[in-house]
Every structure is written in structure tokens, then in C-alpha cells.
Design goal:
The protein has 146 residues and is mostly helical. 37% of the residues lie in helices and 7% in strands. The chain has a two-stranded antiparallel ribbon. The termini are far apart.
């Protein structure tokens, strides 16, 4: 696959060496500058830096759950207010409808009464119609003869 004239290279594999004895961690009072720590690696190199405490993840706190009782009381209050408002509107509607019907009845009575008054008080006499004299009437059905 490779041509014969390609030079062969040897590869060196470096495996990291674990630190058997890590540098001691010195507790630092908060608010002060931490001390500089130096670590000597197995191959002789020296690494210098600040000792850092790894931040601990915050504990996940569940938000306080709203109790079912509080939700039911709130919904009950909203429902009660809605029913009270509806009853107030219904009562107002019934009162207005009753007043309207009463006015219609009074208007009909005034118009009908006026028509009757015109009929009774008109001085024009009887024009047409049938006048029955009851004293001279003959009731054939019951065989009353006068």
C-alpha cells in the first residue's frame, strides 16, 4: 500500500503517570488571598498555582408546592364572586323586565280604556246594530211568550 521508499517512523507513546501523593490541601479562611502551592511532577517539572476548592453544585431545591387547599379556596372564592355577580345581574334584569311588562300592561289598559270611553261617551247615538227590548222579547226555546 505504501511505496517501498517511504521511511518508517517510530512512535513514542506517552502515558500520564498518576500522582500518588498529591499535595496537601491547606484550608484557607474566606476573604484572604490563598497561598501559592507548588507541585512537583514525577518527571521533575514543577507546577505552581493557587489551590482552588472545586465549587460544590448547589442542591436543587424544589419550589414550594402550592397546596391543593389553597388552590381550591382561591377557585371557590372566584366562583363565589362570579355567582354573586351573576345573581346581581339576573336580579337587575328581572326587575327591569317586570317594570317593562308593567308599563306595557298600563299602556294597554290606557289605550283600551280610552277606546271604551270614546265608545260610551260618543253622543252620536246608535248607528246600526241591533236593539233588543227584553220585555217584549219572545223566547221560543223556553216557550216564554209575552
Amino acid at each position: 500500500m505504501y511505496p517501498d521508499h517511504t521511511p518508517q517512523r517510530s512512535a513514542e507513546v506517552h502515558h500520564p503517570t498518576p500522582i500518588v501523593h498529591p499535595a496537601p490541601v491547606i484550608p484557607v479562611q474566606p476573604g484572604t488571598v490563598p497561598a501559592v502551592a507548588s507541585i512537583v511532577l514525577p518527571d521533575g517539572r514543577v507546577v505552581t498555582g493557587y489551590a482552588i476548592d472545586h465549587p460544590q453544585p448547589q442542591a436543587v431545591t424544589d419550589p414550594p408546592a402550592v397546596s391543593r387547599t389553597a388552590v381550591n379556596v382561591a377557585l371557590g372564592g372566584v366562583g363565589f364572586l362570579a355567582v354573586c355577580g351573576g345573581l346581581l345581574l339576573l336580579t337587575s334584569f328581572i326587575a327591569a323586565l317586570t317594570a317593562f311588562i308593567t308599563q306595557l300592561i298600563i299602556l294597554a289598559a290606557v289605550i283600551f280604556g280610552g277606546w271604551i270611553a270614546v265608545q260610551v261617551l260618543s253622543g252620536s247615538g246608535h248607528k246600526g246594530g241591533t236593539t233588543v227590548n227584553i220585555r217584549r222579547a219572545v223566547f221560543k226555546r223556553n216557550h216564554f211568550h209575552g
